Amino acid sequence: MTDRILDTFMELAAIESVSLEESGVAGYVMDAARACGFEPYMDKAGDVLGGNAGNIYIKIPALQIEAPPIMFCAHMDTVTPVKGVEPVIKGERVVSAAKTILGADCKAGVAAIIELMKMSSQGEIEHGPLELVLTVAEEKQLQGVRHLERKRIESRYAFVLDAEGPVGKIVNASPTQDNLLFVFKGKSAHSGVEPEKGINAIFGASWAISLMHLGRIDAETTANIGVISGGRAVNIVPDMVTVEGEVRSLDMGKLEKQRKSMVKAALEAEAAVGVGVEVKVERAYEGFQIDSQDALVQLGIEGGKAMGLKMEVQSSGGGSDANFLNTIGIKSVVLSIGAREPHTINESVKVKDLSKLARLCAEIANSAGRMRIS
Ligand SMILES: [Zn+2]
């Protein structure tokens, strides 16, 4: 199995697939499904979002085992930079040769799902009914999963393959995230001739940011200012600056408190410096918390146990398709996929983790028959 899934992964990783340009990977998945004798379906998410591929659904009938359907999900898009990506094997890991990400997030997950299809079609595993869902535009605020055709999915439980770190982790809690957009409005003037007639929007924004508490706020809460843009020339007092940030927390009360404190800082700049401030708050995604005793988590633990892997259950500071799936009645946790340092050019995945993840999915699918999860 190691060679087979390694080949799959190397081929997948070599296909560039930034958000909304997933057609290469989507075609690869559809071909793999058909070669295994399954009928993949692609929805219209690509048309709606302006991308070149939609979400893919593959149903695999039960093999020997009676159980409720279980869904496995991974996203097909990656972040940048990925132009010219060239996956290479270096020792026990796959890395990217050039200065690009590798895209193991989430192609390690996509490869595991393809391997699951191959194992099933070859009769190498026994399992209940499986639903495989490959999404687009996950890295763009989970846009793809939001356009799923809900009625196509029967499963009430899903494992999303998307957490970083060695295989063996179940993420059962993830924060809610709010995005904040601040627009600081000043007044332009010639900086050398009559600066006193201007109101410096950059100064106002800096004032506000300096009052904000950012970074790790507490064990459950983080905050960041990530983008700042404005100003036109060194000799013009800048009249507009936009500042973008985010707040995440596992606790709604703490989320609100932090968000309010950042808005308050902006309003204090308004009073102190005389800039105008507009604030826009948007919920990026809802968080979730699933009890570690829940049948879904226990199923993940059981799958690990069947292959001698002790699963660790923990919360994460990141969002994934699971955040949205949990809001539409598909109870979901996230499995770690072996990707290390995702979203950086140092990203890598252990060759062993690739097959381990596929094996874990197979053992979970197999364990579903033994457990009462309906
Ligand atoms: Zn991911």
Automatic annotation (TrEMBL):
Cofactor(s) recorded in Swiss-Prot or TrEMBL: Zn(2+); a divalent metal cation
Residues of the Peptidase M20 dimerisation domain: 183-266
One GO BP annotation of this record: proteolysis
Pfam families given in the database record: M20_dimer (PF07687), Peptidase_M20 (PF01546)
Signal peptide positions on this chain: none
Keywords in alphabetical order: Hydrolase, Metal-binding, Metalloprotease, Protease, Zinc
MF annotations from Gene Ontology: aminopeptidase activity; metal ion binding; metallopeptidase activity
Positions annotated to bind Zn(2+): H343
UniProt xrefs under InterPro entries: ArgE/DapE_CS, Bact_exopeptidase_dim_dom, PepT-like, Peptidase_M20, Peptidase_M20_dimer, Peptidase_M42
Similarity section: Belongs to the peptidase M42 family.
Name this protein carries in UniProt: Peptidase M20 dimerisation domain-containing protein
Source species: Candidatus Solincola sediminis
